[in-house]
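Chapter review: from sequence to fold.
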Amino acid sequence: MQSDVVQYFKKLGVEQGARESIIEGILEVLDFRFSASGVGELKPILESVETLQRLKALRREALRTYSLGTFTQMLHEDESGIE
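The token string follows.
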């Protein structure tokens, strides 16, 4: 039986891996759809998103947004606490 501490750190590692995967997926989608320089500059903003649920919502938004500018504007609004 694993201790609570070991289980906690395993869960934390899994969550961190999921976050990194989702962020990379968002950047890949945006780069593929818009072929724009500056996509990589969004990474620090995406890394500041606190929940996996919000990152998943942003991944869906990356798939349906009409422009990189619209997506970037939405991220900056999120960053300032406006949703």
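Two observations follow directly from the output. Helices lie at 4-34, 43-47, 52-64, 68-79. The mean pLDDT is 85.
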